[in-house]
Amino acid sequence: MSANDDGYVEFVAARQAVLRRIAYAVCRDDARAEDVLQEALVKLYLAWSRVQGTGREEAYARRIIVNADLDQRRRPWHRRRSGVPIELLDGPAPAGTASEDRMELLAELRRLPPMQRRTVVLRYWLGMSVEETAEELSISTGTVKSHASRGLATLRERLGERIDVG
Amino acid sequence: MSESDLLTRLDHELAHLPSVPAPTYLLQGRRARRRRRAAVGAVGVAAAAALAVSVLQVLSPGDGTDRSQIAEDGTDTTEVGRLRDVPLSADPDVVAPQPNNPVEAVDGLEGVDWFTTDDVPTWAQEYGEHGPVGVSPDGRLWVAPDATVRRVVVDPYVRGEDGVTASYAVEAQCACVADHFPDGLSWVIISTDGTGPGGGEMDQPGRETDDFELWVDDVTSQLQGRPSLAERLVRFESRTSDTLVPASPGVTIVEQGHDTGYPDSFASRGAVAEVTYAGTTWYVMAVEPPDGGVWYDAMSGDLADSLDAFVEKWHSA
Hints:
The complex is a heterodimer.
Chain A: H1 3-26, H2 30-46, H3 48-51, H4 57-68, E1 79-80, H5 104-111, H6 114-125, H7 130-137, H8 141-159, E2 163-164
Helix pairs in contact in A: 1-2, 1-4, 2-4, 5-8, 6-8, 7-8
Chain B: E1 4-5, H1 6-13, H2 22-49, H3 79-83, E2 106-107, E3 114-116, E4 125-126, E5 129-130, E6 133-135, E7 141-143, E8 147-154, E9 166-174, E10 185-192, E11 199-203, H4 212-221, H5 229-233, E12 234-236, E13 244-246, E14 252-257, E15 269-277, E16 280-288, E17 295-300, H6 307-316
Parallel strand pairs in B: 3-7
Antiparallel strand pairs in B: 2-8, 4-5, 6-7, 8-9, 9-10, 10-11, 12-13, 14-15, 15-16, 16-17
């Protein structure tokens, strides 16, 4: 492998877990999340010579992920299975964490409209500022505030409790 | 339920996700890079043929922008624009200009090396679910016990290219697919590199076309450096225009508009059109996201009765 490829593999090994969790949080289902993650990591590879060493590697991939799911309607009935060989996944998920058993907050989060889901994830889960979230999603700060607020209110209403966002 | 913390709860709920060996993504990236290079190579060939009408700027090494592929007259000379010069046949069934991809479906499983099992193997499952077919690492087609195969295209991808050791495109009926597949009918294309069950795509028959072989040609087009169905129907008139023009002889644009239903933050330009070719109608969506990368996609004309209805259906599905 070239030095470039070595660096890429090292980065993916170290940060894919973080990126995968973001993908699962902003995408409507697990399969779509795997697709989006793969798409982001492929694009990162294509841009690696420009991005590596800048300290922006993760941000580059994350931005693709949080904006990619807007594209899901591009092929309305299209259901793409992951190109990753299933046997290469690190074994089955532990009991109680299969998609059908995954707990209610993620399920309710995925029921939110896409932009509300994103702003909630970026603002309250990843801890980005309003300005950072706006830049990440290429929307105004006012739009961030309104979507995040509505999303959070919906989650609170559906979960029937107060959600402490710190 | 006690007061909870969104951050902590999401951390907990997403704590046990699968992981994938990093070299797997490296392989995917390399494939994508090869496809990109192949496309750029095709641009070079097309550029020579088009020299009389446009002068290309010199392709700067390392210049990742599309600027290097733009003609001075603004004509769309990107790889997609050039590749779509491949002529459409008068017969919509003739879809693949490459001789190594004749796209000939066989009825049922005639002559196909296949097998089934009483139970669904673990490797054929994804999140506890399974599709109608799979491909085993040794290249055999696995058919789910609750599936019926109608038609098969053997080796829709070329063996040996991009590491593919076996591939199948299958029209099958199975109760195992999602509810939005009418009568459980689906089109699936799967491949393996010989190291695992591989992956693929599943689509709803009739979404873009009711011609199975045309669908196979479409889904293999990108990897094989050919224009997709939608890219053969229309293209933007130039790199800055939001007007669509026919991309192939025989295509007629019946109507077009600019309301794609996408916000400006998602589409820096876009257009929709109703087109006909060989007596068949399609609706086409063309969008360029702010970060570039024009894409085209098509929907069967049977699924909407106007451009507005098409856009609404597109976004409501």
